[in-house]
Design goal:
By secondary structure, this protein is of the alpha+beta class. The protein has a nine-stranded antiparallel sheet with strand order 1-2-3-4-7-8-9-10-11, covered by helices on one side. It has six helices and eleven strands.
Length: 249
């Protein structure tokens, strides 16, 4: 079963390959999307009635889920020496740097709870996978070229794992450096492969802000693979700065 819906303002898709009973597959996918929609409603910085905004105004104590999200942010801030931050330049809280990956990973957990061991969940280009779509073949996730977003600059093959890309090429300077409070980033885009999407998503944002040194840093903080793209088009890998993209396997 394959389904696509718009959640958090972006297209998200779920592809389940091993639940052959149509009703069981539909229930699993329904439950996964329910998790994604709930996260958007509860933690969106754009909804004045969201739990995040009510917590920020002191109207409610943080739920266990919000505490977990805030702890992920605190851990990422500490690990990146303050580069990662959920406090926006205007002083408000913006947990989007954590929530999308966290929610998608939660939704993947729901698919597993419903018995699926072969699926791909794509949250606007950030992907978490389990198993194989077909025996002997990995899931393939494309990484877009920040200079030409309709073109793929690399393809990541995954079985059990996740890949996330953070960049400025679509939404402009929406990422800020927690050390300075200024928007902007040292890289045009950063891609990280990790065991789970919460980790991959947060690390990709960190690498985007940290720049060249962030790629090597990511490997010490949970990345399986990582690379970034500089404003001049050069690609930064674990080995250093290269002239052309290096496909990941």
């Amino acid at each position: 079963m394959h389904r696509t819906e718009v959640v958090m303002g972006i297209p998200m898709s779920v592809d389940v390959r091993d639940l052959t009973d149509e009703r069981s597959a539909a229930e699993a996918v329904d439950a996964a999307f329910a998790v994604l929609r709930s996260a958007d409603e509860r933690f969106s910085p754009y909804r004045e009635d969201s739990e995040l905004r009510r917590y920020e105004r002191g109207e409610t104590a943080p739920s266990a889920d919000l505490q977990e999200i805030l702890q992920v942010a605190r851990d990422a801030s500490a690990a990146s020496s303050g580069a990662f931050s959920i406090q926006a330049p205007d002083g408000s809280l913006d947990t989007n740097g954590v929530v999308k990956g966290w929610a998608a990973e939660r939704a993947a957990g729901v698919l597993r709870e419903h018995g699926s061991r072969r699926f791909c969940l794509n949250a606007g280009g950030d992907v978490v996978t389990a198993g194989e779509p077909e025996p002997g073949r990995a899931w393939r996730a494309g990484v877009r070229d920040p200079f030409e977003p309709t073109r793929m600059m690399a393809v990541v093959e995954l079985r059990d794992g996740a890949v996330a890309t953070s960049g400025t090429y679509e939404r402009g300077a929406h990422v800020w450096d927690g050390r300075t409070g200024e928007t902007g980033a040292a890289l045009l885009s950063a891609t990280v492969v990790a065991d789970d999407l919460t980790t991959a998503d947060v690390l990709a944002t960190c690498v985007l802000v940290l720049g060249v040194e962030g790629v090597a840093w990511a490997f010490a903080h949970g990345a399986r693979e990582a690379f970034g793209v500089l404003p001049d088009g050069r690609v930064v890998t674990r080995a250093g700065v290269a002239g052309v993209p290096v496909p990941l396997g």
